[in-house]
Amino acid sequence: MIVRVHKETLSTGEKLDLSAQVGLLTRNIKIVGGDYPNMQQDSYGVTVKVGMTSMDSSTFTGYARISNVEFYRFGHEGYVDPFDPRYALAFSNLGDNSPSYVRNSTFHNGFSPAIGVYGTNDLLIENNVIHHTVWFCMETTSDNTTIRNNLFALHIWEGSYQNRYEPGNVRWHGCIEAITATNLNLTDNVVTASERFAYHIPPQDCSISAEKRYANNKANTALICLGILPLDPVSSATKCALITGVTAWKCLYYGFYYNNMVSVVIDRVAAIECGIGVFEMLIGPNPITHVAEDRHGDVNNSLIVGTTSSFDCTVDQVNQNDDNIKLSSLAVPFKARQGGKGGIAMIIITGGPNSAPEKPFAGIMSYPALLGFMVINRIGHTLVGLVMIGTISFFTQLISTHGSPTKIIMQMLRKINSADCVDMDCDGLKKVLIFDEDGTLIDGTPSTIISWAEYEWDGDPRRGLGDYRIPKTMLTSLNGDRISVNQIAPHKAVEFLLHFSSTPPKDLRFHLMTRDENATILMKVWYPSPNRKDVYVNGQFVTHKNGYYDASNRYLFKPASKDNPNEYVPDMMTDRNGANYYDRNTGLLYILVQGSDSVTIKTADTVIVSFLFEPLTVDEFFGEQIVMHVCSFFNLPLSKCRLVDIVSASQSSGRRRRRRSTSESSDQVVVEIANEPTNSTNGTVGDPDQVSTSQINDIGDQIVTIGQTGGLSSLTNSSNVLGMNVGYIVIVPVHSLCFVEEPVPEHEVVPFKTQPKIRACDDQGQPISILGTSSSPWIIKAELKDGTGSNSASALTGNDTVQFVDGWANFTDLALSQSGSGFVIEFSIISPASATNYTIDSTALTINNRKVKMVVITMATEALEFDVIPVFLELRDEITNERIEDIGWRGHVWTTTVELGPQSPTDGVVNGTTSSTFDNSTSQTSLSISLSSLGTYVVKFRLTTSPAEYDIYTEVLVTIKSQAQVSMVIEDTKTITMKFDGDYNTIVGTGTSYNNFIAWVSNWLMGLYQSVVIGNVKVSPGSIIVTFTVNGSLSGVNETIFSICGSIENGQSVTYNGQTLTLSPYLNVGRTAYYGVSCGPIPSSSSGSESFPLAAIIAIAVTAALILIVVVIFVVLWKCKVAPKSKTHAIGKAKYFGNETDPIDEILFREKTFMSIRDQIPVSPIPPLATIIDDTRRKKMSSGHSERSRSKSTTITPPPAYTTVIRVATPVEKPLWKY
């Protein structure tokens, strides 16, 4: 039955006849899955399998002729493997010509696919109705399966089936899943309501002339009506894939989606009210391989409709909260994402796959391919546009349009990301080229449409486009003057002068993306080097327009005449593809590109040398003599050297770069050293005298060295040569070496604080920037000059040999090993051999003795009496603070001994290893000492050498505790500050003096107050302020404070180093300050109120503490004995959540005090997350779904530990949460 939905004749003349289909599901013969309570959750129904079996070496092959049968509640969800297909009906391994078929039957309310065909060829499936399937509606991997006149409805994707939510599931099956089938016959079928592809089928071969196998199939309300993915096995023998015979209606994302390696033709299809009607993407070859294939994507004889007159935006809405829609976001095309509809997206031909469906379906993850095009022919489209998102040529003919603009998508700012090394618009979207060959696309004469390539040039700075992107070489005239941008490029985006912003490629290829063999352009390509450029068309050499072979078969060049410098520039009217001329004077290669054949430019391995002579002394005969001498010098056949040009002084003023005055006023003989051009891009001249690339490079290195060391006369056999250029580089002879920075020493062994920097200079004393070549650099060596220096044992150390880089020789770590004066360092060229006469000497250097310090790297500063204290010491350079690598650089033996400072305890003795020698390899030594009694010690380490030269001290303060102090119970700690009258700098000072005072005051306090622990003694200026901590029992600390207060009140004096120090009337205990003889507190204002006695404060504090203890005891007794008698109190059998427990724990739980444990335990017990997931939330927690996984039950039982309840002020139990 067919229900008419919409019928319309479009303004373009095409007729639409859209309808819905109705199918009857009931049949008299029924195969029904038995119902049981958990059937839907288990997704477990009836299955029928038709296959083969073996018994006693006999094979039995079954068959089934299914007609007018109803399959209801069928299949086992998740079992979709071909070797175990648990579908409503599965045919397995029945071979060829099986009598089986499936006709006039229905399949509905299933948990799996309805039909599977595996290893069963020639099967007929027709006139069936299939409704509500999971994974796919049916699958065939067999040969010659015929699927005819079937209705498929409601194909459910397994990733959101039964409230699953599987973001990791990237499977995209078709309702008709037949991508691996062969010779498939597909006619008159309808697929509706598919949650992924409607048709996932193999394309046909364009070259097969027989009747096409796909016809009159329909699909509607799918995400993608027909889709082919990058990894789908399109036959490698197929050079062109054909998609035909399908009408796509209301497909949300794409009507037809093709993404594979094979060229594609989409013919006789219709895409109506789809997100994007047609999307084509071809893969490969990768452009970095330089392989080009002319692949194409065509759309022919088809109808594209954006919206019909019955389309209603208020009705045709998508539920964006549907899980299937959420989990298909990677497939959303750009146009559908914006809410609009697109007709035909311009083809994308890219060097590699975009990893769909794991990545965005329309994403581009590789560079565009080198070649490719798209043809649109005989297309009717209405109320929808051609959407251009690609980079390939686009040909159109016989396009019927109505209200359908052509839209070229602009570049997106979000694609510009400097973190990805992208700081400007990508060119891809700016290179759309549309050939409207008959004018039907734009309602006019045949035309060409180009994209807005100059969009935002010098506009939005975020796009990184503007005149500053133009290479400076393009904006510089031959004499070095600046060229205006408006002069050289008045019309942006239509330039044919090519400058590279970086180094030009050695090999370059041009081709026109056209089918017109007469289409011609003249390219000009600028090269920074004068190496010969050989041009090939289809791999065959094209002679330069000024090139010729002489009688000796030498390949030579005719120079352009002085009166007509453009004499050899190719003529677009008369010359053919590949005609070329290289003007070395300007650096421009002129090349004609014509038709569809590619033109390849190969830069030859060449040495170009220009010899400079006095004006008016050079003619062609003289030039040939120079060529002969150069070839003879390098022992080369004459065919490898050729005269390229003779430039008179009057011509040289127009050179492309500024020259030195010698170049500008000289005649030049330009000589090329290179092999002859090969006949093909992959061939050789077959010459036994062929010169290798390495030989040519070596000749170039030798010529540069000869020019810089003054050997030009030997190379040219002429004493009149003034100079030489190699390529466009002026070779300047070296006159001498010059210091940029001379060496300045630090002291012996340590690298000079100023390292020498040397350059080669010309006869004017100017530095030479280009010295040697990268493959043959100049090398300089530093040596201590013989007979210099007062210490003959001193030697030059460090890296004494460096290369010149960009004309600089920079030393980094030169040093002299021992002290002395009068040292001279000689710097000499050691390569090339012809330049060894260049030397330069430093001024006489004075090297001071090295300053050394001894550092304690590990030592405890607190210990017990007689405990072993490990000590590790290291020798370091006092200036750099770096460890001295070789402490025996002058033959010293380094020894350290331990002493005690004068303010250490008088009864203290240092025991253990008190002397040790430093290890030469590590510059370290170790000691193990112990100290005999309580107090603070100044432990002094003395460093001496043999032979005697160094005598150095290092000190460490060490506090020794008694066993009684360690065993003392610490109940209180107070920080106390007091003050001595006296001059801080005179009495305390710094360094050793400071350490001695710390030790003295520490030991004085320890001797006075032995019932407490004195620690952390510090001294600061402001008279002499002493801060320390008192640790001990409450009474001990209080007694110490009273005693100190008394000493201050009495103005006690002590003697230190013969000087009398008196305690000032100042005391600070914790954060409270006291002053005066009564030690009262400092008032907060100047009100004149009397100070409060310290003793009274202490008494008040003790009384308050006793009262607090009594209050706490009373509260606890009240809670335990009195509160339980209250009528509203019901501890019952509860501990936190109601179990039996100690009442004290319950009190602490319910009490709102700082002792309460209520905040530590949640009031309501929270079950594990897995026990509270219901059907609406389970989907948000699911990840991937195995093909074997099946839901057994939705009943969830909480663990026993969470079945408790809480009793609150009533004997009735009421759970706080439930399932």
UniProtKB/TrEMBL annotation:
What is the name listed in the Swiss-Prot or TrEMBL entry for this protein? CEMIP beta-helix domain-containing protein
Lineage per the UniProt record: Eukaryota, Metazoa, Spiralia, Lophotrochozoa, Mollusca
Keywords assigned: Membrane, Signal, Transmembrane, Transmembrane helix
**InterPro entries, per this entry?**
CEMIP_beta-hel_dom, Fibrocystin, Pectin_lyase_fold/virulence
Query: Which residue numbers delimit the CEMIP beta-helix domain?
Result: 63-154
Which species is the source of this protein? Tegillarca granosa
What single Pfam family name could you report for this chain, choosing any that match? CEMIP_beta-hel
- Ranges for region Disordered: 1177-1199
Annotated membrane-spanning segments are 1092-1118
